[in-house]
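The data layer described in this paper is built around a simple, fixed record for each protein. We quote a single record here, exactly as it is kept in our systems:
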Amino acid sequence: MLKKYNHIDELLVDAAKEALYEKLIAQLNKDFRLANIEETFNVHITPKELKAQLHEIIYKLIQERFTEYLSLLYIIDVSETKIKALDGADTIVLSGQVAFLILKREWQKVWFKNKL
Protein backbone atom coordinates (compact mmCIF):
# COMPACT_ATOMS: atom_id res chain seq x y z
CA MET A 1 0.00 0.00 0.00
CA LEU A 2 1.21 3.48 -0.85
CA LYS A 3 2.36 5.40 2.20
CA LYS A 4 1.07 8.88 3.09
CA TYR A 5 3.85 11.44 3.11
CA ASN A 6 4.08 14.52 5.31
CA HIS A 7 7.40 15.76 4.02
CA ILE A 8 9.19 15.78 0.68
CA ASP A 9 12.33 14.19 2.16
CA GLU A 10 10.40 11.09 3.31
CA LEU A 11 9.09 10.57 -0.20
CA LEU A 12 12.52 10.90 -1.80
CA VAL A 13 14.09 8.50 0.71
CA ASP A 14 11.42 5.89 -0.05
CA ALA A 15 11.86 6.35 -3.80
CA ALA A 16 15.57 5.65 -3.39
CA LYS A 17 14.96 2.69 -1.03
CA GLU A 18 12.58 1.09 -3.51
CA ALA A 19 15.04 1.67 -6.38
CA LEU A 20 12.48 3.82 -8.17
CA TYR A 21 14.22 7.18 -7.83
CA GLU A 22 15.44 7.21 -11.45
CA LYS A 23 11.95 6.31 -12.65
CA LEU A 24 10.58 9.21 -10.60
CA ILE A 25 13.03 11.55 -12.37
CA ALA A 26 12.06 10.08 -15.75
CA GLN A 27 8.36 10.63 -14.99
CA LEU A 28 9.02 14.24 -14.00
CA ASN A 29 11.00 14.83 -17.19
CA LYS A 30 8.27 13.23 -19.30
CA ASP A 31 5.54 15.40 -17.81
CA PHE A 32 7.67 18.55 -18.04
CA ARG A 33 8.16 17.82 -21.77
CA LEU A 34 4.42 17.29 -22.23
CA ALA A 35 3.83 20.71 -20.63
CA ASN A 36 6.41 22.29 -22.98
CA ILE A 37 8.71 23.16 -20.09
CA GLU A 38 12.30 22.89 -21.23
CA GLU A 39 13.86 22.30 -17.80
CA THR A 40 14.83 18.68 -17.14
CA PHE A 41 16.44 16.79 -14.30
CA ASN A 42 19.55 14.66 -14.64
CA VAL A 43 18.93 11.06 -13.53
CA HIS A 44 21.96 11.33 -11.23
CA ILE A 45 20.66 14.39 -9.37
CA THR A 46 20.69 14.00 -5.60
CA PRO A 47 17.37 14.17 -3.76
CA LYS A 48 18.50 17.41 -2.09
CA GLU A 49 19.33 18.98 -5.46
CA LEU A 50 16.07 17.71 -6.98
CA LYS A 51 14.08 19.27 -4.17
CA ALA A 52 15.87 22.63 -4.58
CA GLN A 53 15.70 22.69 -8.38
CA LEU A 54 12.04 21.69 -8.54
CA HIS A 55 11.19 24.35 -5.95
CA GLU A 56 13.05 26.98 -7.97
CA ILE A 57 11.43 25.94 -11.26
CA ILE A 58 7.94 26.02 -9.76
CA TYR A 59 8.64 29.44 -8.24
CA LYS A 60 9.75 30.82 -11.62
CA LEU A 61 6.76 29.28 -13.39
CA ILE A 62 4.35 30.88 -10.91
CA GLN A 63 6.07 34.26 -11.22
CA GLU A 64 6.87 34.38 -14.94
CA ARG A 65 5.02 31.65 -16.87
CA PHE A 66 1.74 31.03 -15.11
CA THR A 67 0.05 29.38 -18.10
CA GLU A 68 2.83 26.76 -18.31
CA TYR A 69 2.55 26.28 -14.54
CA LEU A 70 -1.17 25.52 -14.85
CA SER A 71 -0.52 23.23 -17.80
CA LEU A 72 2.08 21.31 -15.79
CA LEU A 73 -0.33 20.84 -12.87
CA TYR A 74 -2.99 19.60 -15.29
CA ILE A 75 -0.65 17.16 -17.07
CA ILE A 76 0.73 15.78 -13.81
CA ASP A 77 -2.85 15.64 -12.48
CA VAL A 78 -2.25 17.45 -9.21
CA SER A 79 -5.51 17.78 -7.29
CA GLU A 80 -7.10 21.18 -7.85
CA THR A 81 -8.64 20.93 -4.38
CA LYS A 82 -5.20 20.48 -2.80
CA ILE A 83 -3.78 23.43 -4.75
CA LYS A 84 -6.70 25.67 -3.74
CA ALA A 85 -6.22 24.67 -0.10
CA LEU A 86 -2.69 26.14 -0.06
CA ASP A 87 -2.02 29.63 1.25
CA GLY A 88 -0.74 31.70 -1.66
CA ALA A 89 0.34 34.71 0.42
CA ASP A 90 4.04 33.84 0.14
CA THR A 91 5.06 32.60 -3.31
CA ILE A 92 8.27 31.02 -2.03
CA VAL A 93 6.38 28.92 0.51
CA LEU A 94 3.64 28.17 -2.01
CA SER A 95 6.11 26.96 -4.64
CA GLY A 96 7.68 24.58 -2.11
CA GLN A 97 4.28 23.17 -1.22
CA VAL A 98 3.36 22.77 -4.88
CA ALA A 99 6.69 21.04 -5.57
CA PHE A 100 5.81 18.55 -2.82
CA LEU A 101 2.34 17.94 -4.32
CA ILE A 102 3.92 17.41 -7.74
CA LEU A 103 6.42 14.89 -6.38
CA LYS A 104 3.69 13.07 -4.43
CA ARG A 105 1.57 12.71 -7.57
CA GLU A 106 4.52 11.65 -9.72
CA TRP A 107 5.55 9.14 -7.02
CA GLN A 108 2.02 7.68 -7.05
CA LYS A 109 2.26 7.13 -10.80
CA VAL A 110 5.69 5.49 -10.59
CA TRP A 111 4.84 3.39 -7.54
CA PHE A 112 1.59 2.05 -9.02
CA LYS A 113 3.21 1.26 -12.39
CA ASN A 114 5.88 -0.77 -10.63
CA LYS A 115 3.73 -2.48 -8.01
CA LEU A 116 0.78 -3.59 -10.08
Summary: The chain has one domain: 8-115. The helical segments are 8-17, 21-34, 47-64, 66-76, 80-84, 91-115. The chain has a mean pLDDT of 94.
